[in-house]
Amino acid sequence: MALPYMRKKAPHTLSSLYISPTCQIWTGFSSTHRQHRVEAMGVDEQGQVCFLGNIAEIEEAYPTEKVPQHSISGSLVAGGVDSHQHLHFYSLLYDCPTLQLYSTPKLAWDFIENYSFSHGFTLFLGAEEKHDLSPQRLLQIKAPCIIVHRSLHRAYANLDGLSQIGLSPSHPQVEKGYIIYQVMDNVFSHYRGENLSQNILSFQKELIEQGITEVHDMRVMNLDFLQELESLREELFIDYQLYTSPETIKEAQRERKLSSFVGIKSFADGAIGTKTAKFKTNYQGSQNSGVFYSTAAQLEENFTLACRLEKQIACHGIGAEAIRRILLVLQSLETRGENLRKPRIEHFECPYEKDIDTLIALGGAASIQPNFSQDNRDYGDLLGERVKMINPLRSFIEKGLNFATGSDGMPSGYRECLLWSIKADKPEQRMTLAQAVHHSTQKGHQLALKDKVSVGGLALGEKANFVLFANPLELLYQYPQERITNNWKELRSELDQLLPIEGTYIRGKIKKLGLS
Fold first, then answer.
1. pLDDT digit string (tens) for 258-274?
2. Nearest-angstrom CA–CA distance, 111 and 385
3. CA distance linking residue 59 with residue 50, whole number of Å
4. What region does 267 belong to: left with phi over 0, alpha with psi -120 to 50, or beta?
5. Which helix (DSSP H) or strand (DSSP E) does residue 304 occupy?
6. 78 closest CA partner among 485, 361, 444
7. Which of 347, 326, 344, 325 is nearest to 272 (CA)?
């Protein structure tokens, strides 16, 4: 029986034909579908996929002698759908200095002091524990200064820096010089890049160059940023869906901007690196088991608001106890008859086994970041045996959990997502390559609340969003597992050698890197 995404007979609107006798055209569908890899793909004059099948079938369905044919020597893969993306934060990267380039505390602090002296108020990004960012050192900086941990779940500020964003040392979100809760809302909402519009476009270019053609769950922290996006509507090629906080959604409701957002974002806990992800037992060598960012009552209020406004519930949850709290609140809402509309948990790391089943029973979904499997090495000493549950992808697939993969923001791109999906340290964290493509493309759409943005994969009648790789995708299996690193510059440089991206096509139209 013909599959729903294969057309035997079609109108003669074929404008481009892609041929791969080795079946290196990956549609993005799972390997259980007969045509998850095909020999031929046709694109019509509107940039939509109009044929998927084998070479004999295309010759039967279309007169192909006058159609431009492109022979695929490497691989053609459905464009990446990033299911969790912080465009607001990463568009500011172009205006904010980062500390990730500095390997020692002395180098980092010399840079902080010199830059602050010449620039006044400064927001520094990408701090790590190795930089020894103590409150005492910050007090020595004369200019207002805020330094954000690379996980975004903790920031360090001197007194003038706190004042700059409207916080006092006695504020409940400030503890011993640290800004500890929801750093992105408390810091970035008060910071506006000098060249934000251009930064957004530059960031879009980088996404496309790395094979990302759609973004779901792009978080917007205020209506000013929404206005910036709307002003760029004609220049934004990537499809996206916007989520925001409960506070901003209420403002959007007053300003009649409610339709701009598909979901409401909440936070149950923090991150493993800052020891703010909430577990039942303490981190090893610590008296700390993590931090709840929201009470159960706060989550219930936020989730109820989403239900009443017919928006999707999206909640950050990493530690097992935080995930349990989210699920208990969702079950409570379901019991009283609220329409949950495919609730999603961002990250869903380290869940209890039964909580996977609970999320499935609720009709929920999870957004997973395979690159976070690097935490096995970075934070293995904090979690012990729990590290294998950071991304238990094999259990998710076996149980039938609806999940999609993404990056949690650049610089991780499509190739890094696939690589970590198939080459993670723990067997429990790995998928096959076909599964990795499926969950980073077509599945991304299935997490979305709206049914018609794009299916994410290469399907008949849908936009021809795809990536051309110079070599077969299977070369990713040859990458030495021990060399996969969170040093994104080093990893990307090596992937550029192993699996170069020749171009990313959006709607079948953009045919070269750099949008040229």
1. 999 999 999 999 989 88
2. 38
3. 13
4. beta
5. helix 296-308
6. 444
7. 347
Distance of CA 240 to the CA centre of its chain: 12
Q: Note the Cα 289 to chain centre separation in Å.
A: 26
DSSP collapsed to 3 states, 109-156: HHHHHHHHHHHCCEEEEEECHHHCCCHHHHHCCCCCEEEEECCCCCEE
Task: Check: CB of residue 221 under 8 Å from CB of residue 196.
Answer: no
Torsion of CA 253, 216, 275, 393, to 10 degrees: 140
* Dihedral sign computed on CA atoms, order 431, 437, 443, 448: positive
The tokens for 181 are 């809760």
Using the CB atoms, write b or e for 161-171: b if 16+ within 10 Å: bbebbebeeee
Half-sphere exposure of 506 (CA within 13 A, CB side): 23
Query: What angle separates helix 320-335 from helix 296-308, to the nearest 10 degrees?
Result: 50
Residues 81/440, Cβ–Cβ less than 8 Å: yes
Which range has highest mean pLDDT (25-34, 48-57, 91-100, 320-329)? 320-329
Q: What is the pLDDT of residues 284-320, one digit of tens each?
A: 988 999 989 999 999 999 999 999 999 999 999 999 9
Q: Kindly report the backbone phi and psi dihedral angles of residue 54, in degrees, each rounded to the nearest multiple of 5, phi listed first.
A: -100, 170
